[in-house]
Amino acid sequence: MKIPNFDAATSIDSPIGNINLFAEGDAVVFLDIGQVPVASVGKSKVLVEASKQLDRYFHGKSKQLDFKVKLEGTKFQQAVWDQIAKLGFGEISTYAEIASAIGNPKAVRAVGGAVGANPVPLVVGCHRVLGASGKITGYSGGAGIPTKQWLLAHESIPYVD
Predict the structure, then answer these.
(1) Over the chain, what is the mean pLDDT?
(2) pTM here?
């Protein structure tokens, strides 16, 4: 996935691997899990806040990630991401439920594509989206499915192997 324009970047360690954060102005525009750490560039209050919130999330001290993000995508992607963003810690949805919620119940596969294109996983918690049977159908962040399994376990979300 292509990193959008940014003017500040930082990396943090986490239980699921390195997390790179990229910001433009006062919003995070991209979050990358499990890649080689980026060199810190620029100064950004939102990156400081995002780093603190992510640390608290991973250490079980907070269930909320609410730092400001800016999402760029198609209208369809935006609708899918908005729906996913409504899911709180420990809540799940399915691809079909999201397709129905955005008024396009036959677009289940397209929803999957939009989920995979999410530029800020964890904040827009795409790990909370499962297949209709509760099965993990994939995950593009970090180490893939093992990363999603860790996140689901962290939030006490049951899933089917």
Answers:
(1) 96
(2) 0.95
